[in-house]
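ok trying again, last paste got cut off:
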Amino acid sequence: MLINNMAANMQNYYAATKTDMKIEQKETEAESRKESKSAASPKMIGTINISDKQAEKLEKALANTDLSALIKEAQEFNDELEVNWNAVVDPDGTIYARTYVESLARQYENAKNTIEQYYASAHRDNLAQGSEAAAMNYLALKYTKFGRDVGSPFYRSDMSEAERQMALRQERALLLGGRVTLGDPYALQSNGGMLNMEQTEKIAKQAAQDVIDQLIREYKRTHGIDEIDVRV
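nice, full thing came through this time. structure:
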């Protein structure tokens, strides 16, 4: 490994310069004794002075080292030490999966409720027709070409053809006990528009990770692990 090679080079450097450092230390101490006690030697004020000879040897120790590769290898080694906290608090992934599905279901349920609320008034009006057959005829008079052709006073000429078709589909589903379609841009317009699968999944993933993150915080607090301590 590059790290091992680097360590070997540095060991050779330190072994080769050990004697030089001792000699220079003695010379420095001798010079210091000659100077005034009130004036500290510049070499003794919190610095490490490296001689040209030592600098040359250090350069040789680094000369054959691919620093960019060394940094990459060190980073990979560092990544291996990272704790997979998700696995610690949710070993089999069931908590994440359950929260993800619950978030999706909640988003779909909210959309369904918004649509049903949007058509609630029209649905009550349809039920007021007295029977299912009468209500179905009423829908035809409101939203189909039949209602337009016979000059029905209930015909919704204020709507576009697409909006009339959607209203017919949704009100008929409510009347017959079926499911409303979630792809209704008219009913969902005031609620941010139709559900977007990509955005819906993004929200669900974030909701799931938020739960896991909370469990991680609780685990760390319970086990006395600092937030910055993320290594095994």
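cool. Confidence is low (pLDDT under 50) at residues 2-11, 36-48. The two ends are 22 Å apart (CA to CA).
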